[in-house]
## 1
Amino acid sequence: MQLTDAISVVKGIGEKTEKGLNKLGIYTVQDMLEHYPRAYDIYGRLMNINEIEEGEMAVFVGYMYMNIETKKVRHLTIASCRVKDATGSIGLTWFNMPYIKNTLKSGSYYIFRGKASRKNGMLVIEQPKILSKEEYYNKKDVLQPIYPLTNGVTNNLLSKTVKAIIEEIDLTGDFLPSTIRKENDLVEYRFAVKQIHFPKDKEEMLRARKRIVFNEFFLFTLALTYMKEEKSKKIRKNPYDRGSISDALIEGLPYELTNAQKRAWNEIMKDMCDGVIMNRLVQGDVGSGKTVLAALALAMNAENGYQGTLMVPTEVLAKQHFESLSKLYEPFDISCLLLTGSMTAKEKRLAYEKIKNKEVSVVIGTHALIQEKVEYADLGLVITDEQHRFGVKQREILSTKSENPHVLVMSATPIPRTLAIILYGDLDISVVDELPANRLPIKNCVVNTDYHSTAYRFIENQIQEGRQAYIICPMVEESESMEAENVIEYTQKVREALPPFIRTEYLHGKMKPKEKNEIMEQFAKNEIQVLVSTTVIEVGVNVPNATVMMIENAERFGLAQLHQLRGRVGRGDHQSYCILVSGSRSKETKKRLEILNTSNDGFYIAGEDLKLRGPGDLFGIRQSGDMEFKLGDIYNDAKVLKAANEAAKNMSISEIQKLCSKNERLKHQLEGYIGTTL
Ligand code: ADP
Ligand code: MG
């Protein structure tokens, strides 16, 4: 068995299962090995009932002192009862499991396990598992992988498949030189793969994790080294003429640029007018006004006779940028074009033609921009917005669509400078560290779930005053396919809680781009007042009239992500509010959310968050889930990132090639990264 083999080589994987695995992004044996557990399940010690906390997993012995009652509510059969021990009692509920009534006998003791939640102010456990003594003691203190799932793919299937692969595949031949391994106290790769999936205990798992994270960062640095080398080979470019359009654009803005924006614009301009090839990252907190910098650079590029592109991660954002840029460019002779994946084949063909014949000078779109069929006429500038959503590879493909385009990358991810230098090692950095002066700081509050009705009243009042609101829906843990259902159900609840003149709609990841665009457009026009959404809303969206961001299950998000979500409000002249609803009363959650409550500064938040959670806090939440690392988290694993960078950055191209020639696996992975053959 080889890592590059299709996953169907594993015994027992038929066509149907393979399709399911494909949905999870698993095509090869390697993909399967790199489908890492998102968490591990541990059956801890038996708790007392009075120790059970909201939002936490509990396992305990309960005495059935009453019979189970069942009732029917719409299509649901609900079975419920209460159990007790010497310290207290708790409610249990099961849905659509009428036979439970015959399984559990009043007057007996059972071991129950489940997550506690609060219903009408009381703690209950929904769908608790019933464990035999044997089951419990067999599983106690053993870490069992919990994998990301999809419809038709069970945790059991994944864990069996991984086990089968590990038994058969040859993972010897570690590509990391043993000196590097020793220096950094790293376990062997083969051992790491086994232990990350089936760790003996937490300590082993952390060691395995460290090694795999190191690998990811090491490979990443090698890829950067390669690209830097490629770039330094490139010749100089004809210097741009400063022209008059960008100044006229600035003159015509309804506001004055902040000093930070002016500084960044000067740096961009200098790059382009100096005859070097720009490779620049613009890093600025949400709402710091990065879009206008892109608009200025694209205008200057057009005035110099070149085509330019602006690539963004979502269709909603592409549309929004297209509209605001078109409007901005109206007085000038700059034509814009929108190119997205959801356009019809005919529309796309037309767009390709216009691009090729140079009928347009600014092309805005999603990753459709880098499709093979797009041929640019004379690409002078390539901008990617919200860069953390794109891999190095995509950025690279776009810049190879022409000889030597200027490259500008815009990101709101608050990465400390020391890390940014590593992660964007091939780029110069401009920092936009100032918010427009007219902004009122967002008012924050952290509340628990009892606060719902007050929050809805608050939203209602804001809407009465003409404003709008976002609500980030509670999360479903079980599977992504339930996400849609969950959003729809929750939206219904919100509709019932608000008066009928308020229009509430929803947005989720499973909707077609066209549907999403329509909803977003109506929200932008205030035809929709409340938008219930999953986190698909988080990047870049700009509706300045929205003043409330209410986030359910705030405890489940990383602080950086919460900060991004919050950044959707506070974009206009009105006072804005962020309501963080936490389903957990744990001290740690409180402390973490308190950071967000007291600060609106993304860099400060990322730094404080880092202090609170030690490295190896594996059960924590991934902060940078959209970076290109599967396991590594640039915040939590900052130390490993630095170490891997140290180890890799001084390798010369010939050393890297030598390493690759000795190890097919490394070569293969590195090629995957940079998108070309070595
Ligand atoms: P981000 O940096 O998050 O991409 P945007 O570019 O979307 O931020 O800008 C957010 C909002 O701020 C937009 O409505 C934009 O028009 C406005 N804006 C940008 N620069 C300024 C400024 N200097 N003064 C006032 N408003 C500004
Ligand atoms: Mg933006």
## 2
Amino acid sequence: MLKSLLVANRGEIACRIFRTARRLGIRTIAVFSDADAGARHVRAADEALRIGPAAARDSYLDAARIIAAARAAGAEAIHPGYGFLSENAQFAQHCAEAGLIFVGPPARSIAAMGSKILAKTRMRERGVPVLQGYAGEQQDLAFLERAARGAGLPLIVKPAAGGGGKGMQIIREESQIVAALATARRLAEGAFGDGALLLERYLSGPRHIEVQIFADAHGHFVHLGDRDCSTQRRHQKLIEEAPAPGVPDEVRARMREAALIVAREIGYVGAGTVEFLFDGAEFFFMEMNTRLQVEHTVTEEVTGLDLVEWQLRVASGEPLPLAQDQIRLDGHAIEARVCAEDPERGFLPSAGTLALLEWPRMRDVRVDAGFATGDVVPDSYDSLLGKVIAWAPARADAAARLARALTHTYSAGIRTNEHWLARVLESPVFLEVRHNIALLDQGAAEFSRPPGCSAEALILAALVARPPAPDPRAALSPWDLGDAFTPNRPALLDVRLTHGGLSHAVELEFRRGAPVRARQGGAVTQLADLAVEAATVAARIGQRRVHARYFAQGARVFVWLGAEACEFTLDDPRTREFTTTAAPGGLTSPLPGVVVAVPVGLGQVVVAGEVLMVIEAMKMEHAITAPHAGSVAAIHFGKGERVPEGAALLDLTPAAGG
Ligand code: ADP
């Protein structure tokens, strides 16, 4: 077994790898950028080395600095996690040359999957089903245009060197072919330095199903079952589960077999994932990820195995711990990715200090987190805060348990998506496995709408949000004036709270400093036994005894009552906050970020909906599109420049007559 391990990553995955390494008695070494000096993963390791400034290309993506850190710390091996350098064949090669063990496949296996064109061609030759289209060497746009016309629509154009869904364009009509190819080419060159494109038949609403495989350096290959990752937003997975539900046994068996063919074909070693699209009848090879996946946890929960331990054993030359017939799958596991993003504001990433982030503690619920209360979420990296994973014997119970765990995740300070995820998990479309990769993009609004809050939650919010309790002994409490000398007369207090855009008025009546009645929406409710602690509030409201978690920050009050999670804003002019509203699709920047592409030039005539600029923040791309036809009159930011929120990006002169 290895003696020391450097993890070239951050956040939850670095913490998760350290956990296993520690258990195996391996010395752990973290690396961090300036943005992460106080990060949780730094504290989770035996030692930590600074590798550079916040920008990922100067820190977590800088192979030379990471190898130097490994040398300085005397590390024997490097685990790349996912993202960053994990699928960089050159980095794997550099590690080998520096005498360091790269915890991952050999550089040649990574390279074999680096080009979607080469990977697709090779797998088709091995009899693995792939989608029709064009994946070849001819790359001039005129040729690709003819190929697109010949292939039939709809089509998807993908950068061959792509990843993270970047640069992909969907062509539904003939008239879009030329523009889509040109845009994809520009975006591919900008993002990957390689403009090669492939075309394939576009499936409307397929499911994303993948197979976890494992191989050792002694020629053993096994699969650890499949996962469904169809619950995606803009091609980013949000909810993943194992096993994939509703797949006929015969299809499942062929898919697992195909995954093993892919792995064998490229001489794979270590943990890998072969991804397929499933159209309800047939499956098609999409790509292989040559690393540990974010969603490896659901496979761990149904197999009872530690995949990181397997990776470390394989990396130190041991054979796979189990043979195929010793691997058993039990029950159902579902994972939700809790991210710093705002479902009510177009999923804009959110960064800053987590005033509160308390993860659920429940039976059969696992939490892999990189952040907790008090941590700062930098805006330089992705928005994943942590993952909540629930296991149960049956899928419906796992979904219910996970939804419950998410509503018992308490966060405040920055915007997070756990309640939105809970609503997706509770939706009939997810529970009945009628979902597919298009669900959240087409119907996101349905889940984004926070449901109304209960009267109890509203009254509790009013009780904890109000100014200090009216104490009859404090003679001149400003709002209690007039009652001070007649302590038996009731005191009334109006609290105005906004929830989900609706304003609510609650009138609280006090006697001897204790609330006795609440009037709200025409109803009168008796109150008794109020007990407000630092984080919890209990009271009798009408006939019900309630106990809730709460958190108050500035004008915001959060109440978690049973399965309900409500956020209120205290409507008090003294604490009213200045809020900006983003104009998605407008010509101002909806968030702070970096310009990654400006596919138009000065004076260029554009049609409505055309991409004018692409901004990246927290690893997500936001396209700024033309709200109307016109010509580009000014471009205020160039590629690589940082833009603040609300900055004017371009000027567009409307087309004459349009
Ligand atoms: P990347 O490597 O950039 O992540 P992929 O090829 O893995 O790109 O595709 C990412 C996502 O795009 C898939 O998970 C799926 O949601 C969607 N997608 C890819 N190819 C197709 C296709 N032919 N038809 C429909 N959706 C597709």
